[in-house]
Each structure stands twice: as C-alpha cells, then as structure tokens.
C-alpha cells in the first residue's frame, strides 16, 4: 500500500519563452501509485491549464500552444504595459530594476488564458500534464522554475468557510485576498491547523449568484492590477492596437458573415482561438458578437474558482498554505456589486 500521500518538487528549465514541459512523465514513478495528482506552480507567469480544457484539446502540445498564442496576440510583448515601467515600481530597488524582466504581457496572458497555480488531475500514464511557462527565457537565459507534485488516492472536505469580501464602488476593481486587513488567510490557516490537515488543498469559489467577477492567483503589483488589468477589462484590444497592427475603428461595422472577417485583427485573433478549440464557424460568429458586448466575461477565461496548496514543508507534521514569492489570490470584478461585497466559499480538503 502506498503512503496516504507523497510529494516531490522539481526544478525545471524552459527552452523558450513560451514552453510546455510535460511534468507527469518526470514523476511517473511517484504518481503511478495513486489515482490522482496535484500539480503546483510557485510562479505568476507559469502554471497549469485546467484538465477539462486540456482534454478538449486532446492533451496535444501543439493545440495547447496555439490556444496560448491566441492570448499572446492580445497581449504582445513590448506594448505599453505600466507594469514594465520599472522606474515607476516603487517596491523595486535600483539593483532589482536592473534584472527585473519586462513581462507585463506574460502576467496578462496568464490571467486572461485562465492558467492555474494549482490543479488536480486523474492519473493516466498516457496523458501528459504540461507545465506552461510564458516567460521562461529572460535575456537569452533560461529561468529556473519549480513545481511540486503530490500523489494521493482520496480527498475529503473537512471544513467549509463562507467569506464576505468588501469591494469598492468602482465597476472595475481587484482585491488582494491576502491583504491582512481582510483576515482571510488567517482564517484559512487556523482552519487548516484545527482540522489537522498536513497535505491537502483549499478550494476558493465564487458563490453561484456572483456575476461579473472572477478569481486568479498572480502578482498583486499596483501597476499591473490597477492599470494594465483595468485597461484590458475595459478594452481587451488596447495593447494589440499599440503594437501597430491594423485596428478596428468601428466594431459595429464588422459584417455578419465570416467571409468579411479576415481583414480585422480582432477576427484573426478569434479565428486562432476558435481553431485551437476546434469550434464551428457559426459559433465563431456568436462569440464575436458576445465578445464585443461583454469582452471581459465572454472572451477572457476568468475563473470562478482557485486552489491553494497545503503541505508541511515548513514544519513536519503541521500543514500550512504554500505560497510562491509573488503569488496572491485575487478577486477581480468588472461590474459593480450591489451591495459592495462579494461572497466566496472556501473548502478545506485533506488528502488520503
């Protein structure tokens, strides 16, 4: 019988800026003993795609690559991201500014494409699980990335918390759920300790009737969250225009029929997205109209749930929430909440 749960942490070296690395093949000796495996990324520009999306794309690296590139076209490198104005980043020292990557595009692609820091896959030796790196090479040097994999057989919900998050009156806003003033992490950590969870997961989900909002795990950096993310929620094509490609001057002038689509950059991007997913032309037309009406909620893959890893790496036998250096769980809204709160449900899960 295998132990209740086993884990391993790997160091990865991507070969290109956008790289997909099959992690499951590197940990096959561990995960083959278990029914399930959790995969965790410690980074904000590298993570894992949802298992359901990967299944829809047949776990094919080329299809997944094309899917990610459709979002990279929305957020091209070198556009005028406030995150990349390093002289405005007050949290960086002069020395840090020298080596800090200008990677606002990678952060926005991570958020927009719905990458995850933490995913759980059913184990199948024939199915690859890809670590997706969006900023794997900086100044021609491969970055060192880390990922943790935990194999387990069963998961059990041991506690459930209902959280109320105050939000501003602004229709577009983001909230750092790790902010000490909210006290959320303290509640979660206390619940983990009280239930004796050593290895497990915390699933945080928007309540069912919460609309026009999403969750992600990323860097809660002021320029990124309060400027760049706000800009794409207002206008997802902003940075495409700044790259100098042809831009739509009047979205309402887009013809209904697909034969007129090719001359518009928006449609070229959407075509890549649709081709990657293998959807129909008629569905493409419907997506275009929905995209123009509700850009954030209909095109960007903002998630309604996120997961956090719990393990005992800091103190043997005592589990706590695992955090990458720059990771924060973030609530994003693109419409006013009435009243000014958002409601979340958190489930504390232990592995067996």
Helix and strand topology:
Elements: E1 5-12, E2 19-22, H1 28-31, E3 36-41, E4 46-47, H2 51-56, H3 61-74, H4 94-99, H5 104-113, E5 118-122, E6 130-133, E7 137-138, E8 141-142, E9 145-152, E10 155-166, E11 173-176, H6 184-194, E12 200-206, E13 213-218, H7 222-234, H8 238-242, H9 265-277, H10 281-293, H11 295-298, E14 305-311, E15 320-321, E16 328-333, E17 341-351
Antiparallel strand pairs: 1-9, 2-6, 3-5, 3-9, 4-6, 7-8, 10-17, 11-16, 12-14, 12-17, 13-16, 14-15
Helix pairs in contact: 3-5, 3-9
Keywords:
single chain; 352 residues; alpha+beta; 5-stranded antiparallel sheet; 4-stranded antiparallel sheet; 17 strands; 28% helix; globular
Could you explain the architecture of this structure?
The chain is of the alpha+beta class and 352 residues long. 28% of the residues lie in helices and 27% in strands. The chain contains 11 helices and 17 strands. Strands 10-17-12-14-15 form a 5-stranded antiparallel β-sheet, with helices on one face. Strands 1-9-3-5 form a 4-stranded antiparallel β-sheet, with no helix packed on it. A 3-stranded antiparallel β-sheet has the order 2-6-4, with no helix packed on it. The longest helix has 14 residues, at 61-74.
